[in-house]
Amino acid sequence: MKVPLSWLRDYIEVDGSISELAHRLTLAGLEVEAVQFIGLPVEQAGGGSTTRGKVSGLAWDPDKIVVGAVWEVMPHPNADRLVLCRLDDGVQEQTVLTGAPNLFPYKGRGRLERPIKVAYAREGARIYDGHQPGYQVTTLRRTKIRGVESSSMACSEKELGISDDHEGVILLDDDAPVGRPLAEYMGDVVFDITLTPNMARNASIEGVAREVAALTGRPLRRPASSADGTGPSVDGRVSIDIRQPDLNPRFVLGLLEGVTIAPSPYWLQRRLRLAGVRAVNNIVDATNYIMLDVGQPLHAFDYDVLLQRAGGRPPRLHTRTARPGETLTTLDGVERKLDEFTVLVCDDAGALSIAGVMGGAESEVRPETRNVLLEGAAWDFINIRRTTAAQHLTSEAAYRFSRGVHPALAMEGVRRGLALMQRLGGGVVASGLIDAYPRPPADPIVALGADDVERALGVRLSLDEMADILRRLEFGVERDGERLRVSTPPHRLDIGQGVIGVADLIEEVARIYGYDRIPETLLADTLPPQRGNPLLESEEELRDALVGVGLQEVITHRMTTPEHDGRTGEVLPGSAYVRLANPIASDRVVMRRSLLTSVLEVIETNHRLRERLALFEIGPVYLQAEGETLPEERSQVVVALSGRRNPRAWPRDGEDSWLDFLDLKGVVVEALAALHLSALRVNPAEHPAFHPGKCAELWAGNRRLGVLGEIHPHVRERFDLGEAPVAAAELDLRAVLESVPERRPVAPVPAFPPVLEDLAFILDDRVPAGEVEAQLRQAGGPLLSGVRLFDVFRGGQVGEGKKSLAYSLVYQAPDRTLTDDEVAEVRRKIVAHLEQALGAKLRG
Prior knowledge:
26% of the residues lie in helices and 27% in strands. α5 packs across α6 (282-294). It is elongated and about 125 Å long. The termini are far apart. A seven-stranded mixed β-sheet has the order 30-33-34-38-37-36-35, with helices on both faces. Strands 14, 16, 17, 24, 25 and 26 form a six-stranded mixed β-sheet that branches. It has a five-stranded antiparallel β-sheet with strand order 6-5-4-7-12. The longest helix is centred in the last third of the chain and has 19 residues, at 820-838. The chain is of the alpha+beta class and 844 residues long. A hairpin with a 7-residue loop joins β4 and β5.
């Protein structure tokens, strides 16, 4: 939010250091991101820079940039697109050359009855070049243009650094004093303040002024600008019916008749532009001005259009949610299909505006408008958020309503809006207002004691100090023994009841007292016992192990759509998903049920950019729990490999192959082995996401950890995964972590040499290699310290339906060197056991 200092001074006296004020506002929660000096030097405005923000601006030389008065606009003798102005700069008359289009209407009229006041820069003035992109400083020098000498100029807003507008010169108000330095007349400072959602009450000049008053202790003054209606009563000329008070707790209407639509005076246009709002006309500008000034958004209807839509009868307005298929063309010219939860302001003929967001084009104020119906209302902030997200539509009004505007401001906003409109456009204000207020909010009353503050902040304040701070923030405060009875002012919706309200008030006391004044204190109590979190620690170990085997971690969106989530299997109906009440985007409407889909989407996006992808993600999926409000949140681990096994420039033995199931199995088993998981085995399995015959279950002992395999061709058709196969594993994180042993055996490094031997066995092709290894270890006992499969062979030499598995065996004892007889005995047991258990024959 941009806050001009001149506007702020309407409410409170501000002097001294600008940087100090910015610093105090930042510490109080209104973070000043930047300070822009308009025409004033930094030192004149009070010195240095803010806590975090940047300082910018170009000072206007008081001797060279002044208020000028144009008395005559004459044609240029040699150029149709230029004019000459006879200008009084307070010292002498000058002839000024310009091509400003807003001076052409005065060309050739002779001496004007009333001068045109402009911002005038004399020779040697430093200004911004209005014809160059960005803000480039230039110095005015004497030159000749189309035969006419020029050394000075009337300035546009861009040339003075006020805004980017350089289409015409600044036309000042009639009361601008000729010859006065422009910096004295309209120099300014603009604070760029970032408001967090809990500070939304300060999204107005009055709100910021209230904070400054509380911080400095200076009195806050409010401009007396409420309109007294002198025209016929508004009763019976319009009505309002609120059909859903929970979405629209208040609606106020006022009527201004006989108005003249015209440009706003320059002082108002300038303030709006400094605050970041475009000027339109006096009526629209008045609604925007009051919104920025007070914090209450307003909307102006053309009353005659409403009469016409009502067939000449008094318009009957009502607020309701949109009907199925209903549309509305908004002020930006877009026809919008309305969601059924969107609240509308309507008449009997249909929708007039999207409540709290944007008005409709049909009833907008036009140059021919003569009678204006002014609306000030309050809306449910959650519904406004849903509407802006669904329509992808934001506005200054929606920004405020989506964060909460107290219904009490509606009456104040309409009164001040009517007064300003009458001041700018004339007309007569109808007496009375239409005020429908079916649901006034309960403004909390909270009991607060000095002990509450000391317990939370570690600083002891007296009740009088606390009461003074809260009164400066316009809370009502009464002393009740050793506690304060604090009532919430009618502009705040952020103070809770009971314990929450106490915490809210303590925060207010801390902000204004000053966080920097609260002393640092050491914890006075004993530290709680430190207890480990084995599951979390094991999860971090697993993450490190996966990175250690060459995988890269990814983090994906947990929100998706049923269609996207179901691409790895059956597309389930939306009712099977945890649906978001207020989704951030149309493709983020439910919580995912599949982590595998999320990781495959990463491969889909990146496979063209990398020859090899080796990814993993540890994250939750969300399953509907029948009869439960909250879903079952189940954590999974997904590993995915795709691309070339070796870099294409370095083929091994002429091989240029793809990563496959065996690579995946090796990576997963190696990572889990780093967590000391024992008795890992792989069994054939089937899964709808994986290729038949290339899918297996992973077990640790008697516990199933998950499934791994190559992605099924039908699933690949739903993704763009390139030509390389994709191998993936989907594991249950809890099953993995609970299989990690609490105690891990530690053995000394062997001091005695091993005996190495290779054995090959012929056995049925259907016997898994994992089962063979398990039987080898069982038969070999403690003297068999290592088993590694190094060759698989199928062919006529071993017989149909048979295979040969060759293992490298390591025999080793911890306390002695094994003899040949001991090794031979272990070998005999192994061969006999495999023959009995698996029908295996030792291959010669």
